[in-house]
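Action item from last meeting closed. Structure (294 res):
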């Protein structure tokens, strides 16, 4: 019997699969789900860090779920340390307001955030520059192409040591990016074969893939986001570039819409912050206030 700390990579039909160990001994253990978690009202999720016991026969059990960085309902995953927000330079056309909603979602969950603009190979340079202009001072921006491989190494370096997920609308290239990141790692380490991992199970469920240097959720979720769960007075904190101006408005409870002497509105008027982002903020705030009426 041995005690290990590991990470749940998936849960299927009463079993949890836990990745644990280092180097040569790194492997996935099949663990029977036990009743103790139901009692605590906590469901183990893909991404959970757990303490587990390995028995003589190689089977295991999950004993304890370690504290989470964050947890998502849809898709049901835990500990998304890094959220890569993916957009395309074209096909589909960039949707900045939508990207800003994804930013808010990820900020709310305390993820480390990066903006990844895919399809650089077909992108208008002016559009790529626009992404840099709007987001470059706020988040790391990776301009990449899964077709040419441009920028992918930088993204991989950024992911090192982290547990990450890709979010963004359908068609921007999330699956292509995941395949590229995981296949290259597999070739480098010779440890995992993406094909065999894939081949075992054709149904789509949430799974965490080990790329050696980092772990990546492969999930069809993270394609939309409901504002409903955001608190009105918290929204301002999910725009990191507002921080220098908060507390400097005339009113303490300023919502930064049309109030007089609003420091955030002034920063946008002065172009000290992006007007595009400020417009997104106002749209989201109005949506939240509308929701509250009903
Ligand atoms: N031109 C170009 N097309 C890409 C690139 N990456 C992905 N695609 C294409 O975009 C489409 C959607 O990609 P997919 O990975 O399924 O996007 P997802 O819906 O976000 O998972 C596919 O037809 C891909 O071949 C890229 O870097 N450049
Ligand atoms: Mg996909
Ligand atoms: Zn204000």
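Sequence:
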């Amino acid at each position: 019997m041995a005690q290990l700390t590991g990470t749940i990579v998936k849960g299927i039909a009463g079993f949890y699969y836990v990745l644990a160990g280092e180097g040569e001994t790194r492997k996935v253990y099949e663990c029977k789900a036990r009743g103790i978690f139901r009692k605590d009202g906590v469901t183990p999720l893909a991404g959970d860090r757990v303490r587990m016991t390995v028995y003589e026969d190689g089977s295991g059990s999950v004993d304890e779920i370690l504290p989470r960085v964050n947890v998502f309902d849809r898709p049901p995953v835990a500990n998304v340390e890094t959220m890569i927000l993916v957009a395309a330079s074209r096909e589909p056309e960039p949707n900045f307001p939508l990207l800003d909603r994804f930013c808010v979602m990820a900020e709310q969950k305390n993820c480390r955030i990066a903006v990844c603009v895919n399809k650089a190979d077909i992108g208008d340079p002016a559009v790529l520059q626009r992404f840099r202009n709007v987001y470059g001072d706020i988040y790391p921006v990776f301009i990449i192409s899964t077709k040419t491989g441009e920028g992918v190494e930088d993204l991989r370096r950024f992911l090192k040591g982290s547990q990450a997920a890709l979010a963004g609308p359908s068609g921007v290239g999330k699956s292509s990016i995941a395949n590229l990141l995981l296949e290259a790692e597999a070739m480098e380490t010779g440890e995992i074969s993406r094909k065999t991992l894939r081949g075992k199970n054709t149904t789509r469920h949430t799974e965490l893939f080990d790329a050696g240097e980092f772990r990546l959720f492969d999930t069809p979720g993270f394609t939309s986001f409901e504002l409903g769960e955001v608190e009105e007075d918290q929204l301002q904190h999910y725009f990191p570039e507002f921080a220098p101006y908060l507390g400097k408005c005339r009113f303490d409870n300023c919502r930064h819409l049309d109030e007089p002497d609003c420091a955030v509105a002034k920063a946008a008027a002065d172009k000290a912050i992006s007007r595009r982002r400020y417009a997104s903020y106002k749209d989201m705030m109005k949506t939240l206030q509308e929701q509250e009426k009903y």
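Note appended to the action item: The two ends are 56 Å apart (CA to CA).
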